[in-house]
Specification:
Blueprint (H helix, E strand, L loop, with lengths): L2 E5 L4 H16 L3 E6 L3 H6 L7 E4 L9 H25 L3 E4 L5 H11 L3 E4 L7 H6 L5 E4 L13 E3 L13 H7 L7 E6 L6 H16 L2 E6 L8 E6 L5 E7 L5 H7 L2 E4 L3 H10 L3 E3 L9 H11 L3 E3 L8 H9 L2 H14 L4 H14 L13
Parallel strand pairs: 1-2, 1-4, 2-3, 4-5, 5-6, 6-7, 8-9, 8-12, 9-11, 12-13, 13-14
Antiparallel strand pairs: 10-11
């Protein structure tokens, strides 16, 4: 049995693959502790996983604002001290970081004590944490075709994002009934990641009467702190009842994606991996202020692979027409789903588990084959 520390806090896009990896390690007889942030979103996301061990570590996001920069430096210094103590207590065989501000202190502490470090970057534009820390890592997992100049080619492996074992497609009618939706009417799901997206929420509320008239049900995940749950019943042009549900958080992602004919969402890498796993077509609206504009790059690649289409946030006025063009086009929806199925051929989690076992077994550089690209 090996022991791993997995740094994955701060957002759902970091925490979800960390949970997937921890469960995969446990299934192979290993022990994993997940290091998360002190943010409320982390506390909400972990409620569903009492069988896993979570530890909150100090840290705040990086910013060039003088006050926030100083706060970040001080919190990371506390984080390194905390993580050095954690490493001496747990004596892990390896450390895995999924990027974000929670990765810095544990990676630095691990390097100081000689613990093998692996980093995973899921976005097509690598984030600051992975770019800065990559040279300290024994392994850096990157999306297909992505390179980081500071990372040795021998340390680079290309693979997708590990997806939680619960994220599997289920029959759409059963999923709709479980979520309180009518089983025989079209469904569009709208969400902006674990923290929600106000422009998408506002669009959903503004367009709700028009969508209902077309017989389209709406399930909108607004984000924590962005309103209480709401259920609306409206009438379509044919006189049928159309439901619209707004919730601040959804921990039944597989059911939601299975229920939806089409998803409107941001373009975080975690969201895209779950869309691919559940074979759910999407209209992506990249967050325009994401670091290094990485969501635009993610969305463009998803569109090129044939999983859906991209609508910039500046073009939300035309989103209604795009939605109607897609959601009632059964041929196009089938084509999108076929492409998504092709994109999910590589089992990233199993490959990553085997590679982590290798790099913590043998301190010489093992010749590990990469999985075939989707």
């Amino acid at each position: 049995m090996k022991t791993f520390l997995i740094s994955c806090g701060g957002t759902g896009g970091h925490l979800s693959p960390g949970i997937a990896l921890a469960e995969g390690l446990a299934a192979r007889g290993h022990k994993a502790t997940l290091l998360i942030s002190e943010k409320k979103v982390d506390a909400r996301l972990i409620e569903k996983y009492p069988h896993l061990l979570f530890v909150r570590i100090p840290g705040t996001p990086f910013s060039w604002h003088p006050v926030k920069f100083l706060r970040c430096v001080l919190s990371q210094a506390r984080g390194v001290s905390f993580c050095l103590h954690l490493l001496r207590t747990h004596r892990p065989d390896g450390i895995v970081g999924f990027g974000g501000f929670t990765s810095a202190s544990i990676v630095v502490a691990g390097r100081m004590l000689g613990v093998p470090v692996a980093l995973h970057e899921s976005n097509r534009v690598p984030g600051l944490a992975v770019r800065a820390l990559g040279r300290l890592a024994r392994r850096v997992y990157l999306p297909t075709g992505v390179r980081i100049a500071s990372v040795r080619p021998a340390a680079t492996r290309h693979m997708g994002l590990p997806v939680r074992r619960e994220i599997v497609r289920t029959p759409s009618a059963a999923a709709r009934m479980a979520l309180g939706l009518e089983p025989n009417q079209r469904v569009v799901a709208i969400f902006g990641g674990s923290q929600g997206a106000t422009p998408l929420n506002d669009w959903a509320r503004r367009e709700l009467p028009v969508l209902a008239a077309e017989g389209i049900q709406v399930y909108c995940v607004t984000g924590l702190g962005k309103g209480a749950p709401e259920i609306h019943e409206l009438r379509s042009r044919n006189g049928g009842v159309v439901r619209a549900i707004f919730v601040p958080f959804c921990d039944r992602v597989a059911e939601l994606l299975s229920a939806a004919d089409l998803v409107i969402s941001r373009a975080g890498a975690g969201t895209l991996a779950e869309l691919i796993r559940c074979e759910t077509p999407a209209i992506l609206v990249p967050y325009p202020h994401a670091a290094d504009d990485h969501q635009r790059a993610n969305a463009a690649f998803f569109e090129r692979q044939g999983g859906g289409i991209v609508v910039p946030q500046t073009a939300l006025g035309g989103l209604h027409a795009e939605l109607l063009d897609v959601i009632f086009n059964d041929w196009l929806l089938r084509q999108f789903r076929s492409n998504l199925q092709r994109m999910d051929r590589a089992n990233s989690l199993e490959w990553m588990l085997r590679d982590l076992e290798q790099i913590t077994d043998d301190l010489s550089e093992p010749a590990t084959a990469e999985p075939k690209a989707a």
